[in-house]
Design a protein that fits this description.
The chain is α/β, with parallel strands linked by helices. The chain is built from eight helices and nine strands. Helix 1 packs parallel to helix 2.
Length: 200
């Protein structure tokens, strides 16, 4: 696990500062990175004044480190499906995990995993391997999270510290593997669609 904390400074950080921070925590070319974000905790970037420029800057900063052989994965969770029984449409259902997850989900080069509550979206070399033909169990064997761990992905928090974030979605994988008594599987009865087809 890695966390990102912007160095203290009197000025707003730049995209270059963010790139250097990604390198400083040990990210390298070809890495698979599971990125959890809380961007209001990071604050603005001096060279990215608009919302789109800000999201583009984060993406380009990370990709300048992990390169074309790297892979970025973000949570695109949709708790509204499990909570309220609304349909899950793979290509359309909005994520509730922040603007960066939505930014990645909406990219034409991203792939989203087919899980009605705990999907992830990915861009990069290993996206298909992580996101397609996965288990229907959110955090069980052969889920997107299980695949990331087996592929030695690196988890990064951006905008919140290790103790408040702690990459909790990956912790659910461990809890599932060890069958902890307080965590259980819930059947989701909401309709699920992919490519306009109802998925059983």
């Amino acid at each position: 696990n890695f966390r990102f904390m912007m160095p203290q400074a009197s000025r707003h950080p730049t995209t270059k500062d963010l790139t250097e921070a990604f390198s400083a925590i040990g990210l390298e070319e070809g890495n698979i990175v599971y990125l959890s974000t809380q961007l209001y905790g990071m604050g603005p970037l001096a060279d990215a004044p608009s919302r789109l420029e800000y999201l583009d800057a984060i993406f380009s900063a990370l990709y300048s480190v992990i390169g074309a052989r790297g892979t970025l994965v973000v949570p695109t969770f949709t708790q509204q499906v499990g909570r309220f029984g609304v349909p899950f449409v793979l290509e359309q259902t909005e994520s509730l995990t922040g603007i960066f997850g939505e930014y990645i989900r909406m990219r034409v080069d991203s792939i989203r995993s087919l899980h009605p509550v705990f999907s992830v979206a990915s861009v990069g070399a290993c996206s298909r391997e992580i996101c397609t033909n996965i288990s229907p169990v959110a955090f069980g064997a052969d889920s997107a999270f299980d695949r990331m761990v087996r592929m030695k992905a690196k988890a990064v928090c951006l905008g919140f510290d290790y103790y408040s974030g702690h990459i909790t979605s990956l912790m659910h994988l461990v809890e599932t593997a060890f069958a902890v008594p307080y965590y259980y599987n819930k059947l989701i009865c909401s309709p699920v669609f992919s490519g306009g087809v109802l998925i059983e």
